[in-house]
Write a structure and sequence with these properties.
With 210 residues, the chain is α+β, with helices and mostly antiparallel strands. It has 4 helices and 6 strands, in the order H-H-H-E-E-H-E-E-E-E. The protein has a single domain (36-209), classed as Roll (Nuclear Transport Factor 2, Chain: A). A 6-stranded mixed sheet has the order 2-1-6-5-4-3. A hairpin with a 2-residue loop joins strand 5 and strand 6 (186-196). The chain starts with 9 loop residues before the first helix and ends in a 14-residue tail after the last strand.
Length: 210
């Protein structure tokens, strides 16, 4: 007798075969590709990526405008009630937390404070900024920390190189903590908190050099 190969039901084989590129999972929590759950997950991931790109573009654009000394365009990135805050250091080595009660390197509540600084630069009456240094901002590690409605919290690290003929090249390193607000279809800066790395500041600095 000639031995014969046992064959299973062809329909059963067709049912058990997984499509090319898709591995079947035995996990109970498996979300099938194309299901409403998988589509919702994909939408959320795309929204997160879009927000990350939007935040990064805003922070990079701010750095570029500062380096180009395009002060008027830079001011447009800020809300009317924006807060610009550079806290000082405490005796314990941390940062001050109450800007209206403790010392700060810079604290301006409202965009009008930034507008006044820009006016002094444009008119040349800011002797401490004469001559105005050239700057290069290197912004990185941009992260979205949270979102609540139209408000977005973001973080970044930055190193700023400044150059004048008198002082040569200097560097300052800091972290940025942002509160961004969606206004007019885009994000604007509602608060910028600059956490300097150096506890002792050599010389003078202003908003464009940190």
């Amino acid at each position: 007798m000639v031995p014969t190969r046992r064959r299973g039901n062809s329909a059963s084989r067709r049912r058990s075969a997984a499509p090319v590129g898709i591995t079947r999972s035995r996990c109970r929590g498996f979300i099938a590709i194309g299901s409403p759950e998988s589509r919702a997950t994909a939408r959320h991931a795309m929204a997160d990526l879009a927000l990350q790109a939007e935040v990064s573009e805003l922070l990079f654009r701010e750095a570029r405008l500062l380096d180009a000394q395009r002060w008027t365009d830079w001011l447009e990135l800020y809300c009317e009630d924006a807060v610009f805050w550079v806290p000082a250091f405490t005796m314990a080595g941390g940062y001050t937390e109450q800007p209206e009660q403790e010392l700060n390197f810079i604290y301006m509540a409202g965009r009008s404070g930034l507008e006044e600084r820009v006016f002094r630069l444009n008119t040349g009456i800011s002797l401490s900024s004469t001559p105005l240094p050239r700057t290069r901002h290197m912004v990185g590690m941009v992260m979205v920390d949270g979102q609540n409605g139209d408000a977005v919290q973001a973080f970044a690290n930055c190193q700023v190189a400044t150059f004048t003929e008198i002082r040569g090249q200097q560097f300052r390193t800091s972290s940025y903590e942002y509160l961004l607000r969606r206004s007019g279809g885009g994000l604007r800066i509602a608060q910028k908190k600059v956490l300097l790395l150096e506890a002792v500041i050599d010389g003078y600095f202003d908003f464009y050099a940190i």
